[in-house]
Amino acid sequence: MGSSKEEKEREAENRERAKKIKRLMNEVSKYLQSETATIEGKTKEKSIQYFSGEALVDTLMSSAWAEYNEDLHVETRMDAVEFCTGLLSNEFFIALKLKSKKRVTEGDSSSSKSKKKPKPLKFDVIIDAGDFFDSADHYYMWKYSPMGIWAYIIGGGLLLGVIAMALVPVWPGEAQIAFQYITNGSGVIVGIFFALLIVRLILFMLVWMFSKGIYHFWLLPNINEDKLGIIETFKPLYSLDNYYEEKEKKDRRKKRREAREKDGISGSEVTSATEDKKNI
User: Fold this and answer.
1) In this structure, are strands 47-52 and 139-142 parallel, antiparallel, or unpaired?
2) 40 phi-psi bin (left φ>0, alpha ψ -120 to 50, beta other)
3) Which of 53, 126, 139, 265 could, after both became Cys, cross-link 95 (CB 3.0–4.6 A)?
4) Cα dist from 65 to 27, 30, 151, 223, whole Å
């Protein structure tokens, strides 16, 4: 009887300790995610923000947790690596494998006025990475997403909206009429949007067929760009591109980039060389 009671107390202590460790990991991860410098990169699926293992350890070592703390003891970089390994095993962030160490530059090298912008590095996601490395050559990306104040506000708003929708039958008559106008108007706007998508697809197919695939015509080409503002979405009104000319331009740019990489010349070196010629 006494042993079973001790086991229950021990289990309760273990559960409480696990909750405490989880809360600590959430707190430290939230701090590290906001303070650790990240760089833009890409995986097969999407654009990402990645960081190095060295940068993460540097951030942790410069934080208040590097001083004496009764919950977390990070006195040396090895202590920080051990804690970051726990974050990795609990999938607060995931490991990445760099595909290529070469940074390819965007833009045409023949134009000396255009500034070259390095393309983001490409990575593969590593499943079950295991150990965490305090190195500038090992890369990771955050998977932990802390709940902000706006998440609670939006969640509460959605909950209140669902409750209000369920109580529509008991609304006053004027409120029900206004709600009906709003829902009908929203349905009309959505219908117009889908009709516009169908019309622009039909126009594209007609121009493509009659030009035998040479010309690509799009009505409102930026209508699906979610990163643009409302006004910019409707500009320009249309676009008409010669497919083969655009393809030749892309091929020429690709060949120039490959030639520079083969010769070991980067885009910045080409730009500086062009500027030196101008100065001479």
Assistant:
1) antiparallel
2) beta
3) 126
4) 11, 13, 27, 48
What does the chain come to in residues? Answer: 280
Looking at 156-232, which runs of residues are DSSP E strands?
215-219
DSSP reduced 3-state for 37: coil
Is residue 39 helix, strand or coil? strand
DSSP SS3 for 191: helix
Average pLDDT over residues 219-232: 80
CA-CA-CA-CA torsion sign (228, 232, 233, 236): negative
Per the prediction, the chain carries an average pLDDT of: 79
| Per-residue pLDDT, 194 | 93
Closest CA to 224 of 194, 186, 189, 191: 194
Spatial distance between the Cα atoms of 243 and 247, rounded to a whole number of angstroms:
6
Strand partners, 49: 40
Give the model's pLDDT for residue 98: 83
| pLDDT tens, residue by residue, 163-221 | 988 888 888 888 889 988 988 999 999 999 999 999 999 999 999 899 888 888 889 88
